[in-house]
Amino acid sequence: MIEVYYAEDDQAISSAVKEYLERRGYRVTIFSTIAAAKQAVERSLPQIMLVDWNMPDGNGRGLCQWIRANWKELPVIFLTVRGDSRDIVSGFQEGADDYVVKPFELDVLHQRMLALLRRTGDVAKQYLSCGHIALDRKRVAVTCEGEEVSLSRSEYQLLLYLLQNKGRTVTREKLLEHVWDVNGNFVTDNTLTVTMKRLREKLGQPECLKTVRSVGYRIEE
Q1: pLDDT class for 184, splitting at 50, 70, 90?
Q2: How many CB atoms lie within 10 A of CB 138?
Q3: Which of 90, 155, 190, 193 has its Cα between 20 and 30 A from that of 29?
Q4: Could you state, in order of their start, the residue ranges of all structural domains in the chain?
């Protein structure tokens, strides 16, 4: 099922779009503020974002800038009022993939979404995130609060494995086996402690990265 996030404060429009898309097998979540949309994206990425230009707490431009700083390839479609060409130009400058002018036909919006999804694929699988941390598996890159962070191979693999097991406690033994032994590098338990310490420092001591005493580590919202 394709996950759609829709930032829209006009309840009549959002309800019509939600009903139309859900009849076609999509799962649609509506957010009436940019802040609420950001919180949801940080928890879990959708396959595509629909973003209204005018929102109560800002405009789509700021939301798109934030998305592009963390998830460069997440598909974004702007919805903008007819005749406001400045919105369209600005939207593309900030990284939107397409736009639909209000009022719009629902099937036109759907066709634009299908075309974009065919082009981009399931980008959500490319990214893993927790809080202000985002990992791009395709680029082998990590950002924290929008800034790219340089990690060693073992630091990256450690973070990747924890994000892949988000919400679950991973034992120290499992981390040693996965991050080091899989490559034939047999190390001491202290190596994990030192690597974790450096990873935390580089990520600004994130609250979402937790130590489970005498067991291992867990990453969770």
Answers
A1: low
A2: 11
A3: 90
A4: 3-122, 150-219
> Whose structure tokens read 């962070």?
149
What is the residue type of 18?
K
**Cα separation of the two ends of the chain:** 23
Among candidates 23, 218, 10, which has minimal Cα distance to 107?
23
Q: How confident is the model at residue 121 (pLDDT cuts 50, 70, 90)?
A: confident
Predicted TM-score of the model (pTM):
0.71
DSSP letters for 168-193: S-EEHHHHHHHHTGGGT----HHHHH
CATH 1.10.10.10 fits 150-219, yes or no: yes
Q: Which CATH architecture has domain 3-122?
A: 3-Layer(aba) Sandwich (3.40)
Pull the structure tokens for residue 75. 């598909």
**Segment 59-73, tens digit of pLDDT:** 888 898 888 888 888
Kind plus residue range of the DSSP H or E element containing 62: helix 60-70
Distance CA 16, CA 120 (A): 25
